[in-house]
Amino acid sequence: MLSGSGHRVALGAALVVGASAASAQAASVLSLDLNSLAVQSRDAAGNAVAFDGLTHTGKLSVSRGANGFVSAIEMDGANQMASFGGVMDSITGEIFLSNGVVTGGSFTLTVSAYEETDTYTFTLSPDAQSKVVKVGSGFLISSLTSAGAFDDSAFGGIDVSAFGGSALEGLFVQFLYQPSESGRDRNADIELTINPAGGPGPGPGVVPVPAAAWLGLAMMGGLGVQRYLRRRG
Fold it and tell me: Which residues of the chain are modeled with pLDDT < 70?
């Protein structure tokens, strides 16, 4: 297993390769920052329970809660919020865990804008290293994503026509999940990155790395982790 510095070197190399591929193929990368979401830990039967940390078996249920919102949208690193006229209507999702290892899950994000409703759906496609990781006072959970699809070419007023089809890939990072004694967190964040179908997404060619390394990747890639840490710290 790579050391922390080894992960940073490997991730840096992956970013360079990915950026070169994106430039060569003129493909975009879309990132979404979703804030103030509600997360509830559940057992295998679906009952709300305390979160067992690194060994939890069951699932995490994610919803909009009372205050969930889209705080940032970027395309190739450029802020798109001036074009975004949407309001988060809902997010529903589940992250399935077995002894702290991510085994799957699915999500649907819905926003309304300009008298229309737009959705993005995706599934979690964990690799062998996707697992719950303790980070400070909370937990970080990440996974590659697949089968991503927007319902049309606009998302809250932003042109997402470059992200067509139903085979979008990307990366999901939920951080820092800070559950109460009952397994509830009312202020969780999710970062999503989305790649065009056939673009330079994570894909099967990427060497799996633990969730803690994805935190380093997110910080290196400017996905908003630093903003989140400042807000939660």
Answer: 1-27, 198-233
d(CA 46, CA 28): 38
Query: What letter would DSSP give residue 216?
Result: H
The predicted structure's pLDDT at residue 199: 57
Contacts within 8 Å (CB) and 24+ apart, 17-22: 18/200, 21/199, 21/200, 22/76, 22/199, 22/200
Structural domain including 64 reads 4-232
**Cα 11 to Cα 145: distance, rounded to the nearest angstrom:** 18
Burial class (CB in 10 A: 0-12, 13-18, 19+), 123: middle
Is the separation of the CB atoms in 112 and 87 below 8 Å?
Answer: yes
Q: CB of 199 within 8 A of CB of 25?
A: yes
Q: How many domains does the chain have?
A: 1
